[in-house]
């Protein structure tokens, strides 16, 4: 015998209900996303160029914005050399620093 509509609705509500996520959990997840973005970016650079300068690794590990990591990941896939990639990263850092100064942060 099949479920009654009431039982099916109750089961659906239980299955689809999302538990509350605390601010700490949300921040931890975001940091996890950022860390994974850094790892993927560095992996692409290592596969494409083998030798990645330590200074570049340190710079990438300081990036805290997942949208910047995504943009750099795309650049890393298509850029011709690690030297050109360093120029892109430095330009991004300079524009980010300029944005911070303009916003007063």
Protein model, in words:
With 105 residues, the protein is mostly helical. Helix content is 77%, strand content 0%. It is built from 5 helices and no strands. It has helices at 5-16, 23-49, 54-60, 66-78, 82-103. Helix 2 (23-49) runs parallel beside helix 4 and helix 4 (66-78) packs antiparallel against helix 5. The radius of gyration is 21 Å and the shape is elongated. It starts with a helix and ends with a helix. The model has no long low-confidence stretch (mean pLDDT 86).
Order of helices and strands: HHHHH
Q: What is the share of helical residues?
A: over 70%
Number of DSSP E strands: 0
Using only CA atoms, what is the Rg? 21 Å
* Beta content: under 5%
Distance between the termini: 64 Å
Q: What's the average pLDDT?
A: 86
Question: What low-confidence regions span 5 or more consecutive residues with pLDDT below 50?
Answer: none
Task: Tell me, briefly, the overall form.
Answer: elongated
The major beta sheet can be summarized as:
none
Going by helix content, strand content and strand pairing, the class is: mainly alpha
Number of helices: 5
Describe the structure using short key phrases.
105 residues, 5 helices, elongated, mainly alpha, single chain
């Amino acid at each position: 015998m099949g479920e009654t509509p009431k039982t099916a609705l109750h089961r659906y509500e239980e299955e689809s209900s999302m538990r509350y996520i605390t601010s700490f959990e949300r921040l931890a997840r975001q940091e996890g996303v950022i860390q994974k973005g850094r790892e993927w970016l560095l992996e692409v650079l290592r596969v494409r160029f083998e030798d990645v300068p330590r200074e570049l690794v340190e710079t990438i590990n300081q990036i805290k914005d997942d949208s910047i990591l995504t943009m750099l990941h795309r650049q890393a896939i298509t850029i011709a050399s690690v030297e050109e990639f360093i120029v892109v990263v430095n330009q991004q850092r300079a524009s980010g620093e300029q944005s911070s100064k303009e916003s007063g942060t």
